[in-house]
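#lab-general

N.A. 3:47 PM
ok so I finally got the sequence cleaned up, no stray characters, all 153 residues accounted for. can someone with queue access submit it? mine expired

B.Y. 3:52 PM
send it over

N.A. 3:53 PM
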Amino acid sequence: MTLLDANVGEEYIVKDIQTDDEELNAEGIGRIADINVGADDFTIFSLADTHVKTAEHYSRFSGETMADLASTVNAGNYSSNSFAVILGDIMFDNYEQVENVKASLVDSPVPVFPCFGNHDCSSSVGETELDLISKYQQHFGPVDYSFNIGLCE
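B.Y. 4:20 PM
back already:
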């Protein structure tokens, strides 16, 4: 399976997916194999701006956001060809709760694809933009990627 990834400098390459516990995008792409990618019937769940920063934020993320996603999926009213996308700002300017968040995403009943947002940059004094991107990639995988599903081209 391949994934479109961008190197720094905007040079695009196609690389093989290496499933790694630290890369949720690779985990999600691996789970896409369970979906009929040629089907014209699929469901996309969108989550945005979860802004997890503190233990209290994580409790709400886990107990409300992810619990609601699971109960919705498990109600059976949606295509078995389903996945979720978090449209950025998964974290809120620090990574204190990142391991908890990652565990919740991996436990989701559908593959979850996180997208990079401005609040996913946990900046400390002296960190460069490349340091911040590297930190995100360490936990969530590439910042640029794509995949095809359904009859969309």
